[in-house]
Amino acid sequence: MANYHPERIIAYAFLDVGYKPPLGSFDVEVINHETERTLGYPMFGYWHFFNSPDAADIMTANRHTSAAIIYPADSNIYLEHLCPKGGIRSFYEKRMTGLLPSWLTKDEIAIHSSIFSAENGGYRGGLNWYKAQMANVNAADEEAVTPERRQIDRPTLLVTCRKDYVAVPAMQEEQMRPFAKSMEVETLECGHWVQLEKSDEVNEILKRFFDKNI
Fold it and tell me: Least enclosed by CB within 10 Å: which of 7, 13, 73, 185?
């Protein structure tokens, strides 16, 4: 929407994962190699599992293990089992589980379980986003976006998460800065699911931003 119909947008708010400009082809191994060099671990090691033909069935059949790796009580689980290549498959093979975080309510668990139930196709639909990225399904469309259209020229908010090892705050901001000139950044002490873990703080930040810009 930002690239094709910017006139329809008043302001942008990004939670944890920032704006990625359309730059054409995507190579997950380039990112893994670079982040292993700069961060000490491959940030997207789990993408290969998500891209595998059996991932959706494995995740759907092992819902307690899926909950433990998607919503860990300790963000270090991502470092230990999600980011390393082969880590998440091993996590499932061992049928590992763990305590869910206190901020994940029973209602949220029920909604998640319903959306990703076997009757609804399990995790197949969600994983298709990763498959499309790795297959560069959108590469031609992205390359056709003009440099001017890659810019977002509205008030922009980025809320980053200090304990997220996948959407690393400094990298999210660095990626966005050249394309979002009017950007504010707020950082919270939490992991990936900021809208759940820090819901009150997120709502306060969003209200201040929208009150000022809308």
Answer: 7
